[in-house]
Amino acid sequence: MLKKPAEDWRAARRESARASVLTAAWGLVREEGLAALSLRELARRAGITTPTVYAYFESKNAILDAMFAQAAQAFVDLKHSLPVTDDPRHDLLADAQAFVTFCVTDVPRYQLLFQHSVPGFTPSAESYELAVGALETTRELLARNGVHDPRHLDIWTAVTVGLVGQQVSNDPGGDRWIGLVEDVTRMFLAQYAHGDTT
Questions:
Q1: Which domains, from first to last, does the chain contain?
Q2: Tens digits of per-residue pLDDT, 151-176?
Q3: Which is an annotated GO molecular function term of this record (predicted)?
Q4: Which H or E run contains 117?
């Protein structure tokens, strides 16, 4: 059965309103940090009343979950946008550099995706599945480089996220740890790239 035009209009209006709330939420956390996300301030920025926020999101955590999903999708899209060459080492380095840039250019997004920065918030299974998809892309890229042990995937993610954490905490706006990405990639592959490449 086809939807009536009025139903289509209402659904489009609801989605537009939800998008406006999320845009306001990102603006707020990028200016003030994740801890500053309050429904009252969010409503003010979105030009609506606080109770109206609840018409679109059942809770603050629901807003955070939608933001997490947007951030995870942006990360997946970034990883899929990177060119695949016949040089897997080059591709791993490009992936690592893109990851670090993705994180340091939007610290609240990085904190939401890769740290537990908001007490009491855990992403929904649906939102988290997007992040798992990005991790699977990394696993495949490591396999192309002869790295197959799941422990080594954990080491790779710990090292790359660690570089971001150091950069964000100790040299915001600089490039001290960003400049180490190539060295770290080379060291990692020298230590762990001993399996068959795919």
A1: 1-57 (1.10.10.60), 61-198 (1.10.357.10)
A2: 999 999 999 999 999 999 999 999 99
A3: DNA-binding transcription factor activity
A4: none
